């Protein structure tokens, strides 16, 4: 899931920066020799694109069928040991962290709701609070 508020910008911007072909909203992907065939849903039906590789693809929700974890498998996973691998073993250079956590704090507690008698009193309270 993209961090661009699901506005479909990340894949397209990346393709433009790399000057690579793009296939957005892919619902089916097939690799070929030096190319990829992308099927995507458009307003008039299905559209098939053949893109040379490398290419940037963005996925549609119909691309894969998610596998949902069952309760017995969740319980088994809780009992499995967690293997910790140092970054140096993976060839990742160790250096000073680029981010520094300055402070962590809880958000302020939410104020309770309030019932109003009419729409007019609601609008008055909203105006008084500067919401409208």
Automatic annotation (TrEMBL):
Keywords (A to Z) from UniProt: Electron transport, Transport
GO biological process terms on file: amino acid catabolic process; fatty acid beta-oxidation using acyl-CoA dehydrogenase
Keyword rRNA-binding carried by entry: no
GO terms assigned for molecular function: electron transfer activity
GO cellular component terms, semicolon-separated: mitochondrial matrix
Domain of life assignment: Eukaryota
Subunit structure: Heterodimer composed of ETFA and ETFB. Identified in a complex that contains ETFA, ETFB and ETFRF1. Interacts with ACADM.
Protein name, UniProt field: Electron transfer flavoprotein subunit beta
Native organism: Hypocryptadius cinnamomeus
Source organism phylogeny: Eukaryota, Metazoa, Chordata, Craniata, Vertebrata
């Amino acid at each position: 899931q993209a961090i661009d508020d699901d506005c479909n910008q990340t894949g397209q911007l990346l393709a433009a920066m790399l000057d690579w072909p793009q296939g957005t909203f892919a619902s089916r992907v097939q690799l070929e020799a030096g190319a990829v065939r992308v099927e995507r849903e458009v307003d008039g039906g299905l559209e098939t694109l053949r893109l040379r590789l490398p290419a940037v693809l963005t996925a549609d929700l119909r691309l894969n069928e998610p596998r949902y974890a069952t309760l017995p498998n969740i319980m088994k996973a809780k009992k499995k040991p967690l293997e910790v691998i140092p970054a140096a073993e993976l060839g990742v250079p160790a250096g000073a962290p680029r981010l520094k956590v300055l402070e962590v704090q809880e958000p302020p507690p939410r104020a309770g709701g309030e019932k109003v008698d009419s729409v007019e009193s609601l609008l008055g309270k909203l105006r008084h609070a500067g919401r409208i």
